[in-house]
Amino acid sequence: MIKTEYDIIVIGAGIAGVCSAFFLQQKGLSVLVVDRSGVAASGGSSAAGAFVSPKIGKGSELQKLTNEAFEFAKDFYLNNFPKYFTQTGIIRIPKDNQDAQKFIEYEKYNSSKREWIDKDKFQSYGIKEENIGFLFYEAGVCDAPKMCSNILTNIDFKQHPVEKLIYKDGYWYIEHIKAHKIVLATGYENTLFDMRYMGVKGTWGSRGDYKSSLNLKISMHKKISISANIDGIIKLGATHVKAKDPCMACDGKPLKSLEELASTMVNTEDFILQETFCGMRSGSKDYFPLVGDVIDVEYMLSNYPKILKGAKPPIKKINNIYICNGLGGRGFVFAPLMGKILADYIINGVEIDSRVNPDRLFLKWCRKSPDLIR
Ligand SMILES: Cc1cc2nc3c(=O)[nH]c(=O)nc-3n(C[C@H](O)[C@H](O)[C@H](O)COP(=O)(O)OP(=O)(O)OC[C@H]3O[C@@H](n4cnc5c(N)ncnc54)[C@H](O)[C@@H]3O)c2cc1C
């Protein structure tokens, strides 16, 4: 039974929203999650292959953060929802010979548990590959909708499109339901407040689930992701088309290119398409997640016009509005840690990690945006 008052309402029931709700409720708040569709039913989380693996590279800040999040996510899923996270291991395969050279350099920056896979090992796993790759054996694959639904067990959920939020007497109202605080976990759509400074953009992708008897025990990522065979289903997925529109016409063509690439990696002869999924994932301007307060942009621009020329006035936030977004192509990796960071901030006042605090983007946006009135 939905109540008329909560401590906090989370808008968006993708992986960002459900993880935020989980940690907020765990810390004792009464929480309602609202989504216009269902739980992981329409946004990026509905389409995600939900591979959970570390990031390779040369030790960038984003790689470090991703790998902290990976360790946290893996333990979170295994300890709380092991039925919906299959630790298949994921092999990271170079895109081409040139990329393979970089893998040797990446070696010293990889703190995650791994082993090298050579041509013979690839063959033994049923993978057609001449180069070397990394097997991250603690990595795995979530069942995205079931994982999201189970994270929400014991948390109230309401299906409702939020058109506007009204602030009155210290409460935010969504129609007749009120709460002191709101978390925006709305993915690529952010129309409720002016949050242009965060630069959230959508990238479109697709996934196909194929029935197959191929004995594929390990998941892999090259230009596309291919899952291990889990209960007779192999998932193929990729996101790479920058897009503004909610969804592009899905005529099955996107899957054709995935199928072609997959056939160069594994034996796809008996693959039978069972279901197609399409969706948008949301990324921030600098590819780091967005977790924390939302700045009152209208107030700042009208009260401090010199901000456009580099002034640094005190920043005003919108009362009790928070965000968890911008998880990019790794929503299932980032969401548990980001949900915890947000809950620690809201309830215990623990400072938000500066790498994910959206404040980092505001002053630069003011200085650099030609569309702002000067
Ligand atoms: C094809 C594809 C493959 C992917 N593969 C992987 C992968 O292997 N591993 C990985 O970690 N990540 C992957 N991703 C990325 C991952 O899916 C996203 O990072 C993640 O889903 C983002 O979650 P979210 O909760 O931020 O947003 P979403 O899942 O988009 O959720 C936002 C929710 O907010 C709701 N909403 C928005 N506005 C309103 C409103 N006004 N009122 C009510 N409800 C609203 C929407 O209905 C939606 O359900 C993939 C994405 C795609 C598209």
Mind explaining what this structure looks like?
The chain is an alpha+beta fold and 374 residues long. It has three domains: 5-44 and 146-200 and 285-368, 3-Layer(bba) Sandwich (FAD/NAD(P)-binding domain), CATH 3.50.50; 76-142, no CATH class; 201-281. It has ten helices and 19 strands. Strands 1, 2, 9, 10, 11, 12, 18 and 19 form an eight-stranded mixed beta sheet that branches. It is globular, with a radius of gyration of 21 Å. 45% of the residues are buried. The structure holds flavin-adenine dinucleotide. Flavin-adenine dinucleotide (FAD) binds next to helix 1, strand 2, helix 2, strand 13 and strand 16.
Shape: globular
Spatial gap, N to C terminus: 50 Å
Largest sheet, if any? 8 strands, mixed
What order do the SSEs take from the amino end to the carboxyl end, as H and E? EHEHEHEEHEHEEHEEEEEEEEHEEHEHH
Radius of gyration, CA atoms, in whole angstroms = 21 Å
CATH class of the largest domain: Alpha Beta
Bound molecules: flavin-adenine dinucleotide
Q: What is the tally of helical segments?
A: 10
Structural class: alpha+beta
What are the low-pLDDT stretches, counting only 5+ consecutive residues below 50?
none
CATH architectural category of the largest domain: 3-Layer(bba) Sandwich
CATH topology of the largest domain: FAD/NAD(P)-binding domain
Q: Give the CATH H-level superfamily of the largest domain.
A: FAD/NAD(P)-binding domain
Q: How large is the share of residues in beta strands?
A: 25-35%
Mean pLDDT: 93
